[in-house]
Amino acid sequence: MTFVPILPPPIELFFVQSTNAVNPGTDIVVPSGVVAGDLLLFTNMCRSASSPVQPSGFTFINSQTRSDSGSTAIGAAYYKVAVGTESGTTLTGIADSSDNTVELLHFRASYPIASITAGDIESEGTSADPSPQICRPTTPPSVVIAHYIDGDSSGLGTTSMSPTEDGTVSSGGFVQVKYKIYNGTQSDTTIDMSDTGNYNVMQSFYLQCNF
Fold this sequence. Notes:
This protein is mainly beta. 0% of the residues lie in helices and 53% in strands. A hairpin with a 3-residue loop joins β12 and β13.
């Protein structure tokens, strides 16, 4: 008799929900349904802020500033492996009143996530066309994130992710967060945006889930 081993199902990552706030977008309430082992991604943007505010319990990933003629546009990103008590709590973004946004993306895996590895962290702030950024996730499941900012608040031009993103969260027409989930074969992912004025900010990275 031949015994065929029963293999466990593959571990996969899924997008659950998102929420955001714009002008004033300094605070955001974590929606219901967050359980222990979920992944929360928090991004924020503001003009003329001296520094972003790191939400309690979140881990800093990256911030990027673009300054010109006395004005500043700044974007930042943070993550947290949820402990299950986050729903209903308020997260504070950047304490400033000028063209600010905050975004929260909520992901869940087949099994509770134990930790996160952030990699291929790139960012640029420029008055020209930002250079394409290439994110190279290595171990599934992982999610590639791109944070695009038009600090002029005149409206984002063209933003892209290749392979094509799984979803986009937009705030006020001048901020976007795109995500691409890899549950199997990983792929180099190219992130790009067009020149939208004096305050172009673009950030990218991957978050790898560990169990």
